[in-house]
């Protein structure tokens, strides 16, 4: 395994990186190029030269290019890290047909951030990060036992607080623990150094503004 996923929460808050450059989508059962093709708003989708996160961000000109991704693989998972106007929050569940798709959306301009699990063309699990636990989807209890074990949420039938007032988790620490649980459950790790400082093949994913703009 590479790095666990807790670092994503730290990166979203880092003074050295912009959270709008860290929209992360992963897929098991698709190649990196197939994932990019399913997410893109145009075709054909062309994989370009390897770029750093800063170089990919500079490609976004808000006239013809609204979002640029960098693609890679980690174990069984393909991933794409997007800069600019990602629409991970409204990605069509159909992208997961015959595959599993995980979305980590920082939502820097409209918090809270969230995690979403898609499979077989359907939302299996969705919940916000760092603001309590109110899951939705076809499998809302999928991660509940693991989150209880990690002391992120209290047992479902418990009427007592999980921690005392002095021990209550901060939203940032809650996000870190939840993301670590997600990674362990799905067997997913992502290479922090490569994503933050290295070069990965770049691909334009949006040539028009996101619908939220």
Task: Describe the model.
The chain has helices spanning 6-12, 32-39, 53-59, 144-149, 171-186, 192-197, and strands at residues 23-28, 47-51, 67-74, 77-84, 100-105, 114-119, 122-128, 200-206. With 213 residues, the protein is an alpha+beta fold. The mean pLDDT is 92.
Protein traits:
single chain, 213 residues, alpha+beta, 6 helices
Helix and strand content put the structural class at alpha+beta
Query: What is the first-to-last residue Cα distance?
Result: 37 Å
Mean pLDDT, nearest integer?
A: 92
Structural shape: globular
**SSE order:** HEHEHEEEEEHHHE
Widest beta sheet: strand line-up: 2-8-3-4-1-5-6-7
Biggest β-sheet: count, sense, barrel? 8 strands, antiparallel
Please provide a brief summary of the model:
Helix content is 23%, strand content 25%.
Secondary-structure topology with pairs:
Layout (H helix, E strand, L loop, with lengths): L5 H7 L10 E6 L3 H8 L7 E5 L1 H7 L7 E8 L2 E8 L15 E6 L8 E6 L2 E7 L15 H6 L21 H16 L5 H6 L2 E7 L7
Antiparallel strand pairs: 1-4, 1-5, 2-8, 3-4, 3-8, 5-6, 6-7
Helix pairs in contact: 1-5
